[in-house]
Amino acid sequence: MKSLTRLAILVVFFSIGTTLVFSQEKPGKKEKKPAQPQTVPSATPAQPRPPLEFGLSEDTPVKIKLARTMSSKDAKVDEKVDFEVLEDIKVRDVVVVQHGAMAIGTVTEAQPKRRMGRAGKLNINIDYVQLVDGEKVPLRAVKGGSGGNHTGAMTGAIVASSILFFPAAPFFLFMHGKDITIPKGTEVSAYIAADTPLDPTKFNNQSGMVESGTSKPEASATASAVVIKSTPDGAEITIDGRLVGTTPSTVQLTPGEHTISIGKSGFKEWQRTITVTAGGAINLEAALDKLP
Predict the structure, then answer these.
(1) Mean pLDDT of 22-41
(2) Is the same domain home to 60 and 173?
(3) Is 184 in the same domain as 113?
(4) Best CA proximity match to 202, nearest among 98, 95, 102
């Protein structure tokens, strides 16, 4: 009897415990708050550049032509490449870049044709053009790039570039298994790399600044040929304050005194004043000393 009573008590307790367990309210899940829409900051419209009072605007085109034939067969990396400006560039009817002025490029990659029919490679950067006042303005080959890009790639290894810059002669650049050749006189368009303010007072005296002691052979029957070389080559030649090319070069000078400067990055500037006579011939070779 006692055991039956105990069993009944256990059953009662078990029933009560089970009821309590299942009657406990489970903690409800937290109600999810609706996601707040993310606010994307509106893009600030690009502020228009203030107009230059006097200067060259970014992307101003500069038409130039190659002054000598370039080939992947013999071109060397870091070799300087001469271009000649084809048209005057004016600011408010004042010539700031003169027709015939020099623009300079640099070979960045050169590889002659290789075995198994692989073509050569030839890449050139267009670096800068010289102004009438002797200053240099950086150029680039592609219009609409980011301001301040001081070089423009003129790449012979990319078909698109050949079509863009050499529409008349892409076959010269991509002959299978051959060296890439860019003929002398090939015309390209470069662009001013960034807005460049200029000092108008340096361009007021057009007659005194545009004329130079250098002349082309057909320009003067009394001009003399001056052959200018340097060790190492690829140095810039400045005559009477005007950039005329890079070494080695042959220039025509009118009779009289002329100051010739030859400079290359990492070397001391070489300078001489020479007297030119009519119909003569002069050879100059500058051994450039490295800077300490």
Answers:
(1) 53
(2) yes
(3) yes
(4) 95
pLDDT winner (highest mean) among 155-164, 182-191, 217-226: 182-191
Residue 192's closest CA among 135, 238, 237? 135
The verdict on 218 and 284 lying in the same domain is yes
Q: What is the model's pLDDT at position 36?
A: 60
The whole domain housing 231 covers 211-292
User: With 80 as the cut, is the pLDDT of residue 9 above it?
Assistant: no
Q: Does 20 reside within a domain? A: no
How confident is the prediction for the chain on average, in pLDDT?
Answer: 75
Q: Please give the pLDDT value at position 227.
A: 93
- 86 phi and psi angles, rounded to 5 deg: -95, -25
The answer on 89 and 218 residing in a single domain is no
Q: Comparing C-alpha atoms, which of 276, 279, 227 is closest to residue 248?
A: 227
Which two structure tokens, joined as six digits, stand for 1?
């009897």
Task: Tell me: do 191 and 222 sit in the same domain.
Answer: no
Residue at 259: amino acid letter: T
Instruction: Give the separation between CA 255 and CA 258, rounded to whole angstroms.
Output: 9
Quote the longest CA-to-CA distance of the chain: 148
Q: Residues of 139-155 as b/e, b for ≥16 C-beta within 10 angstroms?
A: bbbbeebeeebebbbbb
274 has a pLDDT exceeding 80: yes
Check pLDDT > 90 for residue 170: no
